[in-house]
Write a structure and sequence with these properties.
single chain, mainly beta, 0% helix
């Protein structure tokens, strides 16, 4: 669940749990409480995944004031079935210094602490055409505590001029 709750002007990401297939739900557990930025919503488009061992990772867009105001991706982790949360951790490590947008994260996991986050970005990595939006990914092998450098999904996206959007991903990782 994601939305504006009291107190006023605080954007909260919360989780709720059901152990009876949705017949009843737990109280809301806050993941993050952030004052709403003047430029708009600081975070949106959450994606959540579990490894079915009580470990969860959430990734979301976040309005970051770094080199310029841009969108980056934060992740949050829980190792106790969502009862408490750690983070945020930046999925794109250059979040505080870049001026490029990283948006629309999708998460996948293999169930062994290995998580994948796919997203779109206009960051000009390795010869990217300026302004071109491509699909990138980062990996975590420690349940979302740290993330690899971002990589383009397909090398052929480097020099195209079309907008490549993120689509749902699945993971088959060793």
């Amino acid at each position: 669940t994601f939305g504006t709750l009291s107190p006023a002007n605080v954007l909260r990401m919360v989780t709720c749990r059901s152990t009876d297939n949705g017949a009843t739900w737990s109280n809301m557990t806050p993941v993050i409480n952030t004052p709403v930025a003047p430029a708009g919503w600081p975070g949106y488009w959450p994606s959540i995944v579990t490894d079915t061992n009580g470990n969860y990772v959430i990734a979301q867009n976040y309005h970051t004031a770094g080199g310029a105001v841009d969108y980056d991706i934060h992740s949050f982790t829980s190792t106790d079935d969502g009862q408490s949360w750690a983070g945020p951790t930046f999925v794109n490590a250059n979040a505080l210094t870049d001026i490029f947008d990283h948006r629309y994260p999708y998460l996948a996991t293999t169930g062994n602490g290995h998580f994948l986050c796919a997203f779109e970005s206009d960051e000009p990595v390795a010869g990217n055409v300026p302004g071109d939006i491509d699909v990138f990914y980062a990996e975590s092998t420690d349940m979302g505590a740290t993330w690899s450098p971002i990589r383009r999904v397909l090398a052929s996206m480097e020099d195209d001029t079309s907008v490549d959007h993120t689509y749902r991903c699945s993971a088959e990782c060793d």
